[in-house]
Each structure stands twice: as C-alpha cells, then as structure tokens.
Amino acid sequence: MRYLTIEQRESLQAQLSDRAAALRVEIAAALRRSGSEAAMSLANHLDEINDEAVADLESSIEIAEIERDIHELHEVERALKRLHEPDYGVCANCATDIPYSRLSANPSATRCISCQRRVERSRGEPARPGL
After folding, report:
1. Are 12 and 76 contacting, i.e. CB atoms less than 8 angstroms apart?
2. What letters, b where the CB count within 10 A reaches 16 and e where it falls short, cover 39-65?
3. Model pLDDT for residues 24-33, shown as the tens digit of each residue
C-alpha cells in the first residue's frame, strides 16, 4: 500500500499488537478451563443433567471458540508481518488499495470490501454490515 503514513502504520501496528495480546490471554484462559478441572466440571454437569448430547455440545462449543481465537491470532500475526511489506493494504483479489478506514476497522483485512463481499456470497455466508 503506497499511501499509509508512518502514523497510520504505527496505529495499525498498535491495534494488531493489542489484539494479538488479547487473543493470547483468551486462548490461555480457555485452555486452562479445558484442563482437568473443566473435565471434572463437565462430568459433574453431565451427572446433573444426565444428557450426554448437551455435554458434548458444550464441549464442542468450547473447542470451536478456542479454534476461532487461534485462527484469528494467526491472521493478526500474518498482518503484523505484512504491515511493512509492499503488499500490505493491497487487495489479494483485485490488487487495488484497501482504504485506511477499512484497515483501521480490521487491520488484518486482505481484501477490499467489494471482493470480501463476493467471497462471502460465494460461500453462502450472510452479509455483514460495515465489513
């Protein structure tokens, strides 16, 4: 991206670094919860409700949350590496500059809004306002 000022890059770097730190804390906390203490709690919960399907669902939700956070952390770390590279802020699909307003809202964005909408439509994902 050719037009980002030093201040804008520093702001984006701070946002990305802060988000990475927050995700690391969330992942660590979730992993601590999923340890033996969580397993004991889940077993007690299963005894209380006597419904294995509900316990499996609760366990699956915890795993999905951890996986989502890990995926986002990887995206943030990739964005931090790309931040000072020429391709940062350039749409991976159409090669146009991604506006600073979009990068400020989502510093790990790799596509412009138009291309991101096309990708989401092709996947059958619901439209998200303000991408």
Report:
1. no
2. eeebeeebeeeeeeeebeebeeebeee
3. 998 888 877 7
